[in-house]
Amino acid sequence: MRTVGVEEELLLVDPETGEPQARATAVLARAAQEGAGQDVFEKELHDEQVEFATHPQSKMADLGAEIIRCRKDAARHAEGLGGAVVALATSPLPVKPTITMNSRYLWMAREFGLATQVRLVCGCHVHVSVESEDEGVAVLDRIRPWLSVLTALSANSPFWQGLDTQYASYRSQVWDLWPMAGPAEIFGSAERYHQCVADLMATEVVLDKGMVYFDARLSQRYPTVEIRVADVCLHPDTAVLVAAIARGLVDTAAREWQAGREPFGHTAGLLRLATWRAARSGLSENLLDPPTMRPRPAVDVIRALLDHIGDALDDNGDLDRAHEAVAALMRRGNGARVQREVMERTGSLREVVVACVRHTQA
């Protein structure tokens, strides 16, 4: 069974006002003083956010328990400084982000200007183990059309700088300000993948390989495929669902490769439209059907996704959990729907943040 790990970025906020706080450095120092967090928590581009990474897990129940524990630990460290953490992919309230002081991030700020200053967004990255780079690249080629569905499921960023964006996932739109972000064309082999990365590096537009922000890529640090299209999920159980589906996609793609089945030949341009549609609509309207790239109701596309990976989900013991989690998500709504419902009820973006602080550990 393939192992799965999750990286989540969380916002640091004032628990009273809901406004982001630039306290990541202090939060990480507090974690270090307690003798915990050195291998879990990390700085991110902005001092208003903190990232954690789980250990590789085989069982989704164990992964879910670790996500909850890491969120609670982050919350405890923030509370010790008078703050709070919240799993929101963008800040509903206006903010002027603070660049974290290290050489890499300062280079990015100089090179990319305003795009770096405004890009306070929080994502969820899923790592799924692969047996080799050849298998990993074959997986990347075959999961491409399905990744936009993960964006729709996880969508958790409807508000930006005090405004309703009319998107379910505005994070994905802000993320695309990076020139090296988005879907990739089919690679065909590990050699061609590395040549593509080398060509990008040769442009000197990117500083290092870590800045090659494909929607899914080979990890630089682990023997994994890293899937990077999801908003940080408001609820921990949604993050586990995204992870289970990601593993199912990797398993299914690897089997297709072993059976000699070719990937869908959709262009990166079509995939970019699918991502835009998922970001705009979330779960409330049509998505683009991954095999055909034609509009189809979101519920039907999600059902098709579960059918596509059904054998892998079953083999991993995730089939019932995934169907139950999808049913619960469709009833409750993703983070974008929850945020808008709080806003409609209270008329206050502050209340949106306060409510989501509670949801983050629920």
UniProtKB/TrEMBL annotation:
This is Putative glutamate--cysteine ligase 2. One of its GO terms (biological process) is modified amino acid biosynthetic process. NCBIfam families: gshA_cyan_rel, PRK13517.1-1. SUPFAM superfamilies: Glutamine synthetase/guanido kinase (SSF55931). Pfam families: GCS2. Transmembrane segments: none annotated. Belongs to the glutamate--cysteine ligase type 2 family. YbdK subfamily. It comes from the Bacteria. Its EC number is 6.3.2.2. The keyword Nucleotide-binding applies. The keyword ATP-binding applies. InterPro entries: GCL_type2/YbdK_subfam, GCS2, Gln_synth/guanido_kin_cat_dom, YbdK. It catalyses: L-cysteine + L-glutamate + ATP = gamma-L-glutamyl-L-cysteine + ADP + phosphate + H(+). One of its GO terms (molecular function) is ATP binding. Keywords: ATP-binding, Ligase, Nucleotide-binding. ATP-dependent carboxylate-amine ligase which exhibits weak glutamate--cysteine ligase activity. It is an enzyme of class 6 (ligase).
